[in-house]
Amino acid sequence: MENILVAGANGTTGKQIVKLLKASQYFNPIAMVREREQMEQFSNQKIDVVCADLTEDLTHAIEGVDKVIFAAGSGGKNVVEVDQEGAKRLIAVSKMANVKKFVMLSSMGADNPEAVEDLQDYLEAKQNADKHLKNSGLNYTIVRPGTLNNSEGKGKIELKEKFNKKGEISRADVAQTIVRALHDDAPKNSTFEILEGDTLIGEALSASSAVVS
């Protein structure tokens, strides 16, 4: 089984990602949390957990890790230091550790932050993090969902390199897409947007394998 470090494991989407990894026969999750009091909820479930702060040294967090998921976020409180520079720090140690894949949870609009004025700072931070990952030399997948909601997952999405519309998607289906992107047959070095749709997640990813950014 491959060890998967999940940055942002304590977040709403991060918890769903960890749960899916725990249930998988292929992956062993390592939940990365910022506060020591957040560790117990994962260790009680017999999930490996590491305490690490994206604003500090992350070298210890990457030990023994095969692949990385970045699902962390500052909730708009510190977007440059966490969403942007924190991602860059994790990318840097991932490169040093020769991780096999880095999956980034980004956002629709990250390619054009100026178009969404009330989220411009956040989307600029995501854009800069995405660019850094693309230029890192790591094998990557960048997943850019529409507006997240807490609806029940359908296991189906609509996937395009770039949509010309807005829309929503459940955190559950985003989590499924991110975990599916870890598989070796998933698209390499690709960036795509996802919304709720009617195509099975695995099929949507297979069809997108030609979408290389």
Question: What can you tell me about this protein's structure?
Answer:
This protein is α/β, with parallel strands linked by helices. It has one domain (2-210): NAD(P)-binding Rossmann-like Domain (Rossmann fold). The protein is built from 6 helices and 11 strands. It has helices spanning 12-23, 40-43, 79-96, 120-134, 171-180, 201-207; strands at residues 2-7, 27-33, 48-51, 67-70, 101-105, 140-145, 147-149, 156-160, 168-170, 190-196, 199-200. Helix 1 crosses helix 5. The longest helix is centred in the middle third of the chain and has 18 residues, at 79-96. It is globular.
Query: Domains counted in the coordinates: how many?
Result: 1
Report the strand count. Answer: 11
Biggest sheet record: 9 strands, mixed
CATH topology: Rossmann fold
